[in-house]
Amino acid sequence: MAEPPGPDEDGVGFPPAEVPAEGGPQPTDGGNGNGSIAGEDVQAVVQERFPGFADRVTITTDAEGLVEMTGSVPGLGDKLRVEQAVVGIEGNKMVVNRLEVEPERRGDLAIVEDLRTRFEYNPELRDAPIRIRVRDQEVFLSGSASNQELIEQALREAADVQGVRDVDVSRLRVR
Questions:
Q1: Coil/strand/helix, residue 150
Q2: DSSP string for residues in 72-96
Q3: Residue 67 burial by CB count (10 A; 0-12/13-18/19+): exposed, middle or buried?
Q4: How far is Cα 82 from Cα 89, in angstroms, rounded to an integer?
Q5: If both were cysteines, with which of 25, 52, 86, 126 could 62 make a disulfide (CB 3.0 to 4.6 Å apart)?
């Protein structure tokens, strides 16, 4: 099985693919002969793993293993978990995640407080010199971490906070 593409420069998601001008990927009939599974089958996997919102996610695939996800999910953490589930399906070579996070109006201060609490209860993040700033439900993390795994852990914690639309870790460095 080919390795999925790596994270984009923000560390979130996977780079968008070159989509044909004819309108992008179309659902396959499953008989494409290259080992990728049909969009309906990928949709079934999403439905099974995420029954609470899978009906709002549409999956299309093409014969080359390109998968495109559209629709909406409750939170940024859900968007990332659906993407990881689809990336892990054999035959999918590229995943384009166009899922939108459903807006939930929470105040920026509430998001900061929730994230600080999450960091406080996480022994690896508790003492890390990471600054948290939130503007219009977008979290900006800056400072330093001892390794890349800690940065990814901070990203996951922030993405799982209710009401977060996006997380920017571009100013978070490995020391």
A1: helix
A2: EESSHHHHHHHHHHHHTSTT--EEE
A3: buried
A4: 11
A5: 25
Which region, left, alpha or beta, applies to residue 127 given φ > 0 means left and ψ of -120 to 50 means alpha? alpha
Predicted confidence (pLDDT) per residue in 64-96, tens digit: 889 999 999 988 888 989 998 898 888 888 999
The residue behind tokens 């004819």 is 22
- Work out the angle between the directed axes of helices 76-87 and 148-159 (0-180°, nearest 10): 120
Angle between helix axes 108-121 and 148-159 (nearest 10 degrees) is 130
How far apart CA 67 and CA 60 sit, in angstroms, is 6
Q: pTM value?
A: 0.57
Token pair of 163, please?
């009401």
Rounded to whole angstroms, how far apart are CA atoms 163 and 146?
28
